[in-house]
Amino acid sequence: MIAMMLASWLVSWRLKSKFQKYSQTPLSSGLSGREVAEMMLRDNGITDVRVISVAGKLTDHYNPADKTVNLSEYVYEARSAAAAAVAAHECGHAVQHATAYNFLKFRSAMVPALSIASRYMQWILLIGIFMLQTTPIPLAIGVGLFALTTLFSFITLPVEFDASRRALAWIDQRGIVTTQEHGMAKDALKWAAMTYVVAALGSLATLLYYASLLMGRRD
């Protein structure tokens, strides 16, 4: 778990440094993140999704509940390879939503159960550890809930990779980026995806730790 925490910090630092570097390179097409997003939505026949600006850095996301592509202030008006990549990636999620992409549907279906699990999971695990010598039931329930969150983390991976694949294919096809800018966009999205990979592995490592406690009690 310590190794995963260190890896998470390193990947996060690397992502921020890459984004900062590629944000300083002007996009040859001169399009802003907002314009890239709106163009990609139009090209995919999506007319019911709004592109809006949100505060923060690297806070970009697609909200399927209100159908909004939320671009951070560092992406919304920026005209760089990094901004184009992020904007197109978030629109990739909107395309997934519009086309009923299976992994996104599965992930969305898990959200209600995950919301309940996340609310009580830590308390149940804590109680389970304290009561481990008396009964393994609370810890077993906690492990089950944690397994659900770990599954969610791994289901997120194909969703993110597919959104990046769609984004890179579209910005190439549309001539949004040059060959050099494509490399920058691909690299930025790769490091963004790595944050999800590390998060999933970290969740798995934690799950195995709690599961080892439970199996040790049974032994």
From TrEMBL:
The keyword Membrane applies. The chain crosses the membrane at residues 111-131, 137-157, 191-211. It comes from the Bacteria. Keywords: Membrane, Transmembrane, Transmembrane helix. PANTHER family: MEMBRANE PROTEASE YUGP-RELATED. This is Zinc metallopeptidase. It comes from Pontibacter flavimaris.
